[in-house]
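Example (one chain per record):
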Amino acid sequence: MSDSGLSRFLGGSPAQVLLRLVFLSFVVGIILSALNLNPIDLVHMAVNFVERLWDMGFHAIGRLGNYLVVGAIVVIPIWLVMRLLAMGKSR
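Predicted structure:
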């Protein structure tokens, strides 16, 4: 893989990407430490969430549908108003 191909794949030069990843890792480490979270705790939380969804079965699908409807009651009118305002600006 050529250097330009590698840079295109990484989204920048390898040194810049490495520096960015080190910085972001440091920031995320600080945040996780402040929240008293361990990466393995996050994995356990995700696994427990999926297990609870599985255990609830079709009831979970109904609850997700309720969340969708409740969210749509808020999101769709806001989206509609924003689209109408955008149409007014484009004229």
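Caption: The helical segments are 3-10, 14-34, 39-56, 58-90.
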